[in-house]
Amino acid sequence: MEIKSVCVFCGSRMGARPDYLEGAKTLGTELARRGLSLVYGGTSVGLMGAMADAVLAGGGKVVGVLPKMLSDREIAHKGLTELHLVDSMHTRKAMMAQRADAFIAMPGGVGTFEELFEITTWAQLGIHHKPIGLLNVADFYAPLLALMRRAVDEGFIPETRAQPFACETSPAALLDQLLKVGQPLAPPKPVLRPEQT
Known about the structure:
This protein is α/β, with parallel strands linked by helices. It has seven helices and seven strands. It holds the Pfam family Lysine_decarbox.
């Protein structure tokens, strides 16, 4: 599958470390340099806005998707290639998923976690076969990776799904991985009833 667009989930705040802002800008610059379009949540604030600004400054294309109810609170970005104001968070996530060929989660809050887990769940269910990556700036996602490992050890996630996403600290290295990955997760095997075995 050729990757032409990348959906990025990240914070609508800057976070406590300058590394997070630098990571967002570097990722945006790298997307533009590679001719990859950015699909994201459509706001002008926080890491989201900084990343979109970096893509645009590099001559890249940015598609924003923002619920109308958040257009004032999150402040819609006025300079995007495309800005879609939609009716709900569900529509927002569905449109971002449809418009993207790959997904990256940067540091962020509960909304970022929810988006990452939903898109990962969809991959596990075979709803999509698009690669997913974590941009692990300042080791932000170390606790999540440990939690995933715990869930495997406790029998809630199969060993084959222990690492459902690529994970890198460098935007360039992460994009390299995503661009060479075809299917990060194998489609789930059907569950057979006893009479079928």
